[in-house]
Amino acid sequence: MNKEFIPYEQALEMFELGFRETCMKWYDGIRLIDEYANNTGHWDLNCAAAPLYQQAFRWFREKYGLFRCIDLQVCNPSHWFIRIDKIEINDYLYHSEDENIQYSTYEEAELACLIKLNKIVLQIKGGEVFAKNSDIKIEIVKNK
Question: Which pTM does this prediction carry?
Fold first, then answer.
């Protein structure tokens, strides 16, 4: 069951990005604790609520309009790709295939996708322009 929860490092990053949802478990350092965590109070620097992957992806979609897709390459079932779309512009911001990056398992792609979403949101919060590639720049308005 613990593999359903995002890793500790990503939980800390999401907390820093503003994730304050209630979770079934939390991290005390790198240990996953089987207790309810409301994620709204004062936390030790090493503590963070531990969302499920589905909960993390839902938060990125609802808060920032970022939708993720993990695709299996049709002609090669051992190659997985990730794509991140910005719902408001009906276009993708990132596709690992553009960079010739593929993942050998779904779980590896899922984690890579979460890490990339964290990086994109850091850029959004910093007011930066996210560049899909060198030819196209997409300005993302900060959420309030």
Answer: 0.81
Token pair 């936390």: residue: 43
What's the burial of 27, exposed, middle or buried (CB within 10 Å: 0-12/13-18/19+)? buried
CB neighbours of 136 closer than 8 A, spacing ≥ 6?
none
The answer to whether 83 touches 94, Cβ cutoff 8 Å, is yes
Neighbour order of strands in the sheet with 25-28: 31-33, 25-28, 47-50
Using one digit for the tens of pLDDT, what is the confidence trace for 85-130? 988 887 889 999 999 999 999 999 999 999 999 999 988 877 655 5
**108 within 8 A of 72, measured Cβ to Cβ:** no
